[in-house]
Write a structure and sequence with these properties.
about 220 residues, alpha+beta, about 45% helix
Amino acid sequence: MPDTQRFWDNVYTKRKRIAEAAEKYAGESLSSVAHNIDAQWMYCAYEWTRKDGAAGIDGVTAAEYEVGLEEKLSTLVDLLKSGKYRAPPVKRVYIPKAGSAKEKRPIGIPTYEDKILQRAIVMVLEPIFEREFYDFSYGFRPGKSAHQALERLWKECMGMNGGYVIDMDISKYFDTIDHWLLREMLRRRVNDGVITRVIGKLLKAGVMEGSQRLYPERGTPQGE
C-alpha cells in the first residue's frame, strides 16, 4: 500500500515551489516544470481522478485500470517524459442541454489513463496560472465554488443597494476554441517541451463519434 500521505506532502511541496517560481518570474515563461512529475505525482493524479466516470473508447473502467496500477503509472510517466505518449481520441456522446427540451450538447469522454495524465498536467499548470486570475473569478478554480460566487455577488449588490445582474453565456465556446491561440497563451507562462508537446497531442487526438474518427481544427471536447 503506497504511503499516500507522504506522496501528497511531496506533491504539495513541489506545487508550492512551482507557485513561488511563477510569482518570482511573473510575466516570464517557465521552461522547467515537467521534472516534478514522477511516480508519486502520477499516483496523486490517479487519486484525484474520478472513479465513477464513463469509460472512454478503450472501454477500460477505473476498477479495471487499478490492476497492476503501480506499473501502469510508472510506464505513463516514462511515456510522457520520453515524448512517446500517444493521446487516444475522445469518445463523443450527446446529452440533453439544461433548459432546452430539444437541444443537446456534446460531451467528450477520454480514456481513464488519459484522464489521469490530464490531471497530472493540470496539477503542474494550476499553481502557475492561479496567480493570473482576478480574485472575483470563481469558475473551475481550486478552493472556489458557485456558492461562493453567489455569496460574493449578493454582498456586492447589497453593498451598493441593488444593481443589475447580467447573465451571459458564450455560445458553443468549447467547440470554437482556437488551438493556436490556446497554445500561444500557454507558452507565455510555460515553455517546457514535455508539457507543450503533450498538450499539442491532446488537442490533435481527435474525437470518436460512433465509428467515425474526426479531427476538428478548432475546439476542445467538453469533459464529463
